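dude i think i finally got it to work??
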Amino acid sequence: MPEQCDPRPYDALLLLSFGGPEGPDDVVPFLENVTRGRGIPRERLKEVGQHYFLFGGVSPINAQNRELLDALRKDFAEHGLDLPVYWGNRNWAPYLTDTLRTMVHDGHRRIAVLATSAYASYSGCRQYRENLADALAALQAEGLEPPRVDKLRHYFNHPGFVRPMVDGVLASLAALPQEVRGGAHLAFTTHSIPTAAADTSGTPADHTQDGAGGAYVAQHLDVAQVIADTVRAETGVDHPWRLVYQSRSGAPHIPWLEPDICDHLEERHAAGVPAVVMAPIGFVSDHMEVKYDLDTEATAKAAELGLPVARSATVGADPRFAAAVRDLLLERAAAERGRTPERCALGALGAGHDLCPVGCCPARAPRPAAAGADWRGPADRAPA
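look at this
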């Protein structure tokens, strides 16, 4: 087998995602899964679920994951990479434990995992590793021998993730009226998280204090700078930009990352900015946070202000992203075989670590998390 297409020691790839409801009857049970252990009343969940009910109770995320699955399988086949691709979710069918069980029954023992979250944070990385640990322990409790799972590195700055976003911003600028295009500002958006969680994101060396944001903010700023620089190089126009946030869901008294996109649009309008491109760089696909918080809520705010806006596309199932996943997989496989592979990354931060170190994106309460330096296997359930 050619070295450049050798996935060994891996015998399968698992696409690990958040999941979402696929009909009105699924919405509240889905939200119960998302908020399990927080004691949120069912009536409150029905109120939160109104975003989903506006779209028929269907989240776009599952359909988008199916499209990505197809894109990955197509890319693998076209490049002679004979590796099956499976899909499992944290909060809705197909559930992670069920998918891993199927993979074990299919004979897979070394599984590479791609999470549909590109950046470092507890909810975007460590929590998925906790989900993997829980699923492996469940399989062992059933009498199955758990496979080894390795999570692929963060890909926020991989060219195959960044270039489609650059093209999305360029297309959005071109879609604005010509008279406002040159003065348009770029609002790079991502999911707001509590400042305490942001400060402890990434490795212990990345951790910050007082809302500086740790690796989570630093990684988004690095990607935003790369995109803005590329847009300037290709258009000859230096569009001012800022990293802003959306989709806050916490209690009002808990500090979260700011400014919110709607507040930012009001501020930009008051400052006389003629137009804004909203670029959701924190999201892999156009799921509910993008469709509601940007396409519905923020767009309505812009219309109220009389501020022209355009929303650029997420990466989704772009063939370049599928190729990036193949690159990440083969890169990690080569490293596991003792090679020193080329590691593609744009910006100032470089390629991320393969193995999450101890203290990386720590849990709110200590829980075992697979695929990290602190993982000892499902037989050892001591807190990690």
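Strands lie at 12-17, 85-89, 110-115, 148-151, 185-191, 241-246, 276-279, 309-311.
im so relieved honestly
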